Queue: 3 jobs
Job 1
Amino acid sequence: FAADGSTVAKSTTYDNGITRVADFTDGALTTITRLDNPGASDGGAKAWDSIVSTFDASGNISSDSVVNDNGTSTVTTYNAEGTRTGVVKTDNQTVDGSDLNTWDTVALTYDGAGNVTERTTTYDNGVVRVDTFTDGVRSSVTMTDNPGAADDGVKSWASQQTTYDAAGNITQKSVVADDGTETATTFLDGNRATVVMTDSLLDGGFETWESITSTYDATGEITQKTRVDDDGSTTIQGYTDGALTAFSVVDSPVGAGNEIWDRIDTTYASDGTNTTTTTLTTYDDGVESLDVRVDGVRTQRVDTDNSADGSARIWTTSEDFFDATGEISGGR
């Protein structure tokens, strides 16, 4: 008892060996500590070693800490209304690595309605996973490989982030590799819609390209692939029903570019028997050259001077026709 006669502590030992100690401040309960047969060698009567509960000034529980016989522990926190706000689970910490679980800690937070809003899992190998939830539905998953470590960790990637819509369908996934390259994939109705690969910004990158962007239709067939190279040039491939139907190469827009042409556009068309390839080359001086081939054999070539003042060539249009052997058969 205190000097004023108020209770400071109350200790109770039960027949099964459990000890309960209640602590008070100014007559108000502040802590309850339960110990399962302290000093016993057989693990006691319960599956836990100790439970410590704390209370606020109004007598509401604010936390529970449970240490189990197997060395695992759980700490639960509550708000002033007695609603659970957080849970932290810790695996048994052993020197020889014989943990009971594949994780070291799992931390959960809850909203006022009791729904989990975030779960953070730290695994034995140092990988950290954070799941977020909206109205009880998972909205994102972020995984980080050994954050803060001096080396590259245990994975070939540094981080992964996945987002989900309100129905739980995946909408986007982004992976950053150890070398700094990144792959970002978007999804529509659960189907892959786009994939963007970006080269690392470290040490000038590790690839000959800066980015590769692929788009897909609702059936999962690729519709377009665009590659931007380190020299600024761009390659665009178009697909129909998974088959290549268009191919374009655009010279770098920086300075005078790298080629004597601005762009080359090629289309492919098949009537079921023959494949016609049409290539339009636009040169730096404004001249356009149209080349038509059937099954690889040139049938027609048309050159047009589309320069600003029409002075790139001495003619406006030059057209040649070719026979089945690819030899010129006529022109104008």
Job 2
Amino acid sequence: DTIGPDISRWRTEVWSEISDLVDGLVPDWACTLLSHVAEAYSAKGSRPLAAPVIRVLLDAIRFPGAAVLEHELTHGFPAIGPMPLGTGWPSRDCPKPIVPLKRDEFLVESCDYIRTVASSRQPDKHAQRLLAEVWEERALKRIRGPFQAHPSWGFSAVMPTGAQSFGCPDLLPFPEGECVASIAFGIEQLDASGGIIKVRRGEDWRRSHHNRATIVRDRPLHDTVLGARYLYNRDHSHPPIHLWGHDHEGAYRQLPTAEPELSYMLLITEEGITVWQHVVLVFGATSSAWGYTIASAMPSWALDDSRWPPCASITWTTTAAWRSRAQPN
């Protein structure tokens, strides 16, 4: 069956119903958000992912992970501990890591690592470029800081270059409570001839022990020929399907973290060590990969259930839902 000439009317009516849901549910929901979650959603040019509206729509198509996704969009995605299961993802034979760090062990070992390594580590050769990016993300409210260093870390933080122009006369006092940090570094992305086309900021979540404290029990599904074959088998009677790739700009950085106290970042510059805090998911963490991939699979489920799209995109972040239905029983 086809929608035919009614498609414009359908779109208008669907959009009107969703707009009514947003007006009725989002204001009260937004008032319940923790400060760092509200901050994460307040980036310039962005709007919060309306969790209660998404929950209504996902419940309507019986999306199995609707309740978990609503909770994490409201309270933030976990940085450590057991990760939620992805919808349709195959289970692992055993959790990874087999012997994860407990929370108290993680706090001790991560602190020991920072105290041992940070003060002797040399500045990254891309430090100034990374610092400029940090200032940009601070302006977007994805990062807080700059802070003083935690007393247990064994060093004094410095005021980063450019602080005055960003309205930072002094370092912020370090917040009370638990704290864990990782060290930032530059990741060079090269073209075919070996020239640098992009420098990304990564953080060493492996040596800071974050990934050892993150427990995964399934495997994300990525784009392969299986996804394309499934789409073809499903829609082979229609015009040829179209496949393309795209990169979601700032992908992880659009979702809040549940525990910003576990997401401090140390950026070592020529002047010394600068201290920052993420309020959104970070590049390089196992928990970020799980959280973002679970969230980004949701639109594909919604579209697939409605059989709405004339074609479907196969990407690292959106293939899980398509492929999850192609798996053998």
Job 3
Amino acid sequence: TQDRRAADGFLNELARQVEVKYGIPPVDTEYRGKQIASFDLGADARPVDSLAFTRSAGQVILGSDVATVKAAVDAQQGESLSDVAQFRTLTGSLPEERGLTLYADQRRAPEMSRLLAAAAPLAIGPLDLSNMIVPPGAVGVSIVEQGLRLDLASPAGADTSDDPRQSRPPADQVLTGQFPAATVAFVSGDSLEGLWESLKDSLASGGGLADFEESMALLGREFGYDPDAQLLPLLDGEWTLALLPAEEGLVNELTGRPLGLVLLASGDDAGALSAAVDQLNQGLEGQRLPLETVEIGGATATFIDLESLIGAPLPLYGLDGRRLFLGS
């Protein structure tokens, strides 16, 4: 904060409003010359059951409890994240005008996983971040004329040599360059296969894996095709899911809005991917579903022509070399 008097006034008003709302006076704790105000709001309080805050030098500190706020005060006078060389290097490469910074350290993934599982367990079981690739990196979020800008910085010397998914041709890293300038939003990641396996691990920890495997087995029996075994393991490259303007298609039909979804996912083995898509086509044809093909930019795309049967379009899919695409 640049105005310490205004910051103190804000915290005093915050304490007063919390006391009025919950009928609980703050507990004041003195620590290193700072006054920490804290509230124990009870287990039924929403959105949090406890709150603590103070101003320390030029920073306003809000935390879940007194111990957390004390740790933040200690960090100002001892070793803090700003003393970590990797953090300084990564955040130093982000735009100065950013309004938000996110930082992740792969070494802390198991600890973050335990904390998240304890705080908000998922319905399908705790999400195990340690099973996912969480490379050390920093993300900066800036507001620009066109909307929000995200900048990602990762250390060039990060040791990912033990993971074969990190050693692939540079061409796999340009999927986002395949989308038009009118793209509304997109999310991108590395290895759809790795993400899929992490979700399965989460299902296993929550006791839901048996039902999932039975669903995959049912697909195999009905269509002669099991995507869990025949397709997902091949998608070990970069993937991107984009929301685009579209005047027709499945998303447009379901939402009534001029939007469409496109998924691009790459793999190292083009031959295996081609065989997997051929097997999918054969499985659908075996169910006597009407398949139609269309040439798009030199690639062959397939869609299930059910418009005349049920009046609803279904997604289109295809393969362009080592890139699988699925569109609404």
